[in-house]
Each structure stands twice: as C-alpha cells, then as structure tokens.
Amino acid sequence: MSLIYKVAETASEFEQIHKLNYRTFAEEIPQHDRNESQKLVDKFHDENTYIICLKDNRLVGMIAVRGKRPFSLDGKIGPVERQLPIQVKKPVEVRLLAIDQDYRNGRAFLGLMQALVQYCLKAGYDAALISGTVREQKLYGQLGFTPFAQLTGTAEAAFQPMYLTKETFDDGIAGRISKPLVNFLPGPATISEGVRKAMMAEPFSHRSSEFESVLERVKDKLTSLTRANYVQLLQGTGTLANDVVAAQLSRHNGKGLILVNGEFGSRLTDHAQRFGMDFDTIKVDWGTPFDEDEIKRALCSGAYSWLWCVHCETSTGVLNDLNSFKKVCLQYGVSLAVDCVSAIGTTTVDLTDVTYATGVSGKGLLSYTGLSFVFHNEKITKSDKLPRYLDLGVYAEAQGIPYTQSSNLVSALDEALLIFEQPEEVYTAISSRARKVRKAVEQAGFTILASEEEAADAIVTISLPADFSAMQLGDNLFLNGFNVHYESAYLRERNWLQISCMNNVTEKELNRMLQLLPFLISTDELVFTTNPKGKTHPIEGVGDYERIKNR
Fold first, then answer.
1. Number of H helices, E strands in the chain
2. Which of 63, 135, 229, 353 could form an SS bridge with 377, CB 3.0 to 4.6 Å?
3. Selection from 167, 168, 124, 122 nearest residue 144 by Cα
4. pLDDT tens digits, residue range 240-260?
5. What distance in Å separates the CA atoms of residue 50 and residue 189, rounded to the nearest whole number?
6. Model's pTM, two decimal places?
7. Structural domains in the chain, sorted by start
8. What is the pLDDT of residues 468-494, one digit of tens each?
C-alpha cells in the first residue's frame, strides 16, 4: 500500500503522535519547550480525534480534530464567530497539523486535507478552524484555507487563524483534483454521465406525447428484463411500492404467509399489519436461507392464499430462492408477491408466475432514487376502497400516468436501462467483483455472513468480531475514499459492514480497496473510543466520548 488515512486507535499510533508532535512543535517550530522524553502530549489529547497518515505502519502525518468548546482559538482571539466573515452553525477546531519531513512532497498533506474534509462533512461540521504557521501560508491557501482575524503566537512562532469550508476546499487546488468517493453502497447508485445528462435536461409535461413515448419504452425495457407482463411506475421509493402491493394483497380472500430472514422481510410484516391483514410468518435467523420443506408444509395445509417474501435480502446479503418460492406457490395455488428491490439489475430475475413484485430505480438499475415499480402478470382493476395513490388499478387504467410524473426521473431511467440490453454482461461483472471481495475478506480472517451458495453477488455482508468495530472500519475506509454500508441501525446493532458490488467501479479502485482492508482490520493493540451508550464511532462529535481507554 501507499499512504493510508485513518482515525488513530492503537497504542502504537498514539505513541507516534506524541513523538511527531514533539518534533514539529518543540524542535522545528519553537512553540513548546524541549524535554528528555522527546514526546509532547497535547493538552486536549483526551478530547482530540486524530486523523493520521501512515506509510508501512509509520506515522508520517497527522491532524487533530476537536469539537468541544471553548476552542483554543477562542482563548486567543475571543469567540471565533464574532470575527468569522461567514455564518457557521457547527464549527470544529483542527490543530496539530504536522507532516514528517521525509514526506513533505505534498501527497501526505493533500491526503490529510481530503480526509479532514470527508471527516467533517460526515460529522456534520460546516467549518474547520485552524491556526496555521505563517511559514506555510501559501500552501494553506492552495488547500482552501481562508485567513481571518489577527495573528497569534510569537514572533518566532506566528500563526494565522483560518477557516475551511466545503466551498473553499472545492475552490482550492486540493478540491479541484480530489477524486470522488468510490461507491460500494447498495444505494444511491453511481450515476453515469449519460444518466446524469438525462436527469438535468429541461423537464417536459407528463401529459405530452413525448412523455408517453419515453414511459412506454421504459416499461417495455423493465418487463423484458424481468419477463413480467405488466409494470407500473410510481413516484416514490421501494416502501411506496410495497405499500401498493400490500394494498393489492388486502383485496385477496384468505390468510397470508410472510417469510422473514432479515430486516426487509420484517418490514413486509409491518406493511401487512398497517393494512390490518390476516397473516402468519415463518422466521429464521438473519443470514439463514429458508427451508423449502417447511414452506411446503405450511402451504399444503390450505390455510394460505398468498405468500410474501424478499428475493435479495439487502440487510444480510442472502439471495433467497425465488424459483423455489414460485414452484411451491404454483403447486398449492397460492399468489406470490416478491420484494425484488435489490435483485433487479444485479442478478437474473424471472417474474413469470409471480403475482406482484417490486423494484426501484436507484439500486441495481444505476439510476437516481425516486422511482419505484410494481410488476404484475394479470390485469388489475381499481378499487374505491383503497387510497388513490396506492391503488395499482388506477395506474393501470390510466396507462401508467394517473398523476404528475417526473420526466427527468423517467428519462434518466430510460438512459440507465441501455446497459441492460446485454444483462448477462452486467451480472457477470457484479459476480466477478463479489468473488474478489469474498476472497479478500476471508483471507483477512473475517467471516462473510451468507455462505457462498446462498449469497447475493450484489451485497457482501462482513460479520465482525465483538472486539472490532464495524463503525471504525467503515469510517476509516471512508477517509481513504471508499463509501461502504455500515451506518444503518440494523447493521450497527450487529456490528456488520457491507460492501456492495452492484456499482460500476474500476478494477484499479476495487483492488485498492481490497489491498487496504488488511491494513485497517488488524486488531493488534486496539484502543477504542466509546460513547456513553457503549457504541464505538469516531466520527460523531468528539465531545460525546469518554476518555480513550485500552481495550
């Protein structure tokens, strides 16, 4: 690996921080007295979060972030808000910016600034304040720091108060050459230039012939991709689409059966409860596939008229066996409804013999969030007993345009669907990425929740041991430019982290992320920061944390 950026968390890293602090601010810049130990522990050490730069486990750069007031700068110039030329709601102070003399070629400095900006944005800070040495005023300016207030310090060690915002960073050299985050999220999707252009085009009326033509083309592409007879597009997320399916199932006579092996199976039960539907559930442990024989025994009783399940369980990365569900429902004359939100666009989905299915634009189809779909194989009639917006029959009767539609969202999806003219090529690429991720994670000694036989290629779920924080790993990947999935409540509760393989990423970026993993998941000498609720999370407001303590 080259340079690695992370939040300091090991005893070795803190020891090196004290030494670099001494070399920089006692020996090089005479801000503090020298001492025999050649270490300098900052007076705010217990309140600092340190973003560091490592090269082969050697600390070569650091910066301290502190959100607790008063800032050290408050003590020098008075409350900073009185002198700032901009309005800020949540400022943070950054101090102790130091780069080892062997690494002052700009790369470490630039990387630290990029990591700092990512950190501050994620934590909700809107301005970073610093006292920068006047010796490097030009460099600070190139990075987007803007001077304000009077100089502080002494003649030998003079410092200029400066502020950095997202806007000033973007306008500086560092911002202009920064690469966007590499997207390993299961949504929002990475948007191609063609899709972006379609989204930003001048909108046109949903009542125009032009819109009818685009919508019909999109519907044809979606039904061709899934082998469904019909599809209706909704202005909303997958939750809306599943509400529409719940509305349709509420019209069916008889009792239902819902399968639950993850968060989104559980949400189906919530949809059904809100409609007052009569149903039972088959629940298995999260990450566990269903037993086909158990489902058969339930359906052969004749007690159920419909079955509702999830195809790709996003919360676990398990790909439930749709063909098995279809077979057993056909055998016993049961209507089948399927949440295919994370499956469509990531794997072959055959909706033949499926009564209802849902999907969205913003995941595997790689378009913008905002559209959802309900597929159906029989013609649907409207019902005056259902809420208008949730009545699938109203959409069908109006040829898919009962209410206002966004021409931009539909046009963007139309463009995104072009890559699915050869869908197997898309699925093969996703599968290849998933195999590489699985191999790298397992070689690093960690467990993937779903077995290879039951795993969805789209989402790899890493189950981390209790003594290692998925939040810290996710934050550190973020500081290095990789956006992975770990902040949802159901992942935090289980200490899981997910790497989604559904987005188009270059081989180079995938390899870089996989090479970085082993360096970030070493648990040697770990030191954790723990908030009062016992959850480890360095990017959440430093003032909330107890004193750093050994594991």
1. 18, 24
2. 229
3. 168
4. 999 999 999 999 999 999 999
5. 31
6. 0.89
7. 4-178 (3.40.630.30), 193-421 (3.40.640.10), 423-550 (3.90.1150.10)
8. 899 999 999 999 999 999 999 999 999
